[in-house]
Amino acid sequence: MLEDYEITIGLEVHAQLATNTKIFCGCKNEFGAEPNTHTCPVCLGLPGTLPVLNEQAVEYIIKAGLALDCEIATFSKFDRKNYFYPDLPKAYQISQFDLPFCEAGEIDIQVDDEDHEIGITRIHLEEDAGKLTHAGDISNADSSLVDYNRVGTPLIEIVSEPDMKSPQQAVAYLKKLKSILEYIGVSDCEMSEGSLRADANLSIAPNGSEELGTKTELKNMNSFKAIEKALTYEAKRQEKLLDKGEEIVQGTRTWDDEAGKTLALREKEEAHDYRYFPEPDLVPVIVKDSWIKGIKNTIPALPDERKEQYVEEFGIPEYDAEVITADRELADFFEAVVAKFDDAKEVSNWVMGEFSRLLNENEVTPANVEFAPADLAKLLEMKEEDVISSKIAKKVFEKMFNTGQDPETIVEEEGLKQISDSSELEEIVEGVLEDNQSAVEDYKGGNKNVIGFFVGQTMQATQGKANPQKVKELLREKLEE
């Protein structure tokens, strides 16, 4: 991407865990409630309150660690990370410093047909802060409102090694990470709701340099598109500065999507001193091997394993398998259809084509569609048996998607069965030829391609219900007489 410089990127990804309650209290862990309605003295840090650790949050971080090939610590503890900010009512965050639950993992990604292994330094468990709503742009807002509902939400922070060398690799890593977390069910990863967000550290250095350049940190990006744009812009911004002989100032920046550029939030010459010390109100956590083994047994087949299965067992192309397995719900839907209709390639074509198109247009997920996978299997069976044409199948499928009706009912009620009866088609074909005598002369004069025109005219005359193969056969018979 840069001609004379090498990019180095590391990501710190925050994922909210999908527990029923918060990490240290009984408040609901729920998005979208009225501001400041899911709070209590514990998560607000009022004097005299004590935290109680949510066991499911620990189970979920261990599950994430195992899915990401991490080493799981059998002894871990919590620490206080001290800093002042309006969305942090206690003026400290219960987090983990030197003894996190998970260390030394990895994720394998593929970009431009090249495989890359991205190391994971650590995964630690902490409580989330509140949410600030700014009156204006974050860099120059006149005022801000704070909602403490998110305070105390269990959060895992996944810290990568600085192994990514392009914005595209960073996006591929984040997509793969999101997919894995969704597969194991520890987070809904709704980026639009802040359940998954990323901070990126980026630096550039001259090609061949043994030392990394000065890094800048891009904060709280919550879409793949924004992350790729922000990293691309920041790399080029740093390139321009170095080309002019200027220094990169270490600091924190934000991405302004409207302006299409990063903006400085604050400069920091050295890392923050958070004055970490062990959390005095929580005992260390001892994780038994038997518990780790039990959690490991609950991990389903992950995207890479499923992808391999689809290629080897179902015989679909690697690209199809990668697209489908990236989304667990889509993969579940695909498998359910294949269980009823055994042409996996035909199923993958529909899942990646018409089905994905309608999902995107209607902003719904595969698990929330109105019809069952068996209905799509039945539709494909009807198409294969020439009950309906390919064109009609798409029309029926869209109605299935919008209404939840089964395909047989739609075809019957709307009279969409394919016309395959030769005697019925013969009359229509003769009419088409009669109305297009000049095209008939063209055909007889040697232009055999004109038969496509006749097929189209016949399909139009039958509103797409004619069997195109039968139509073509009849046309050839009539034209060769």
User: What sort of overall outline do the alpha carbons produce when their principal axes are compared?
Assistant: elongated
What's the number of structural domains?
3
Spatial strand arrangement across the major sheet: 2-6-7-10-1-11-12-13-14
Helix content: 25-40%
Number of helices: 15
* Residue windows where pLDDT falls under 50 for at least 5 positions: none
Biggest sheet record: 9 strands, mixed
Q: Which structural category fits the helices and strands?
A: alpha+beta
The CA-CA distance between the termini, in Å, is 64 Å
Question: Would you give an account of this structure?
Answer:
This is Aspartyl/glutamyl-tRNA(Asn/Gln) amidotransferase subunit B. It catalyses: L-glutamyl-tRNA(Gln) + L-glutamine + ATP + H2O = L-glutaminyl-tRNA(Gln) + L-glutamate + ADP + phosphate + H(+); L-aspartyl-tRNA(Asn) + L-glutamine + ATP + H2O = L-asparaginyl-tRNA(Asn) + L-glutamate + ADP + phosphate + 2 H(+). Belongs to the GatB/GatE family. GatB subfamily. There is one protein chain. The chain is of the alpha+beta class and about 475 residues long. The protein folds into three domains: about 5-290, no CATH class; about 305-415, no CATH class; about 420-480, Orthogonal Bundle (Arc Repressor Mutant, subunit A). The protein contains 15 helices and 16 strands. It has helices at about 55-65, 165-185, 225-245, 290-295, 305-315, 320-325, 330-340, 345-360, 375-385, 390-405, 405-415, 420-435, 435-445, 450-460, 470-480, and strands spanning about 5-15, 70, 75, 80, 90-95, 100-110, 115-125, 130-135, 145, 155-160, 195-205, 215-220, 250-255, 260-265, 275-280, 285. It has a nine-stranded mixed sheet. The longest helix is centred in the middle third of the chain and has 20 residues, at about 225-245. The mean pLDDT is about 90.
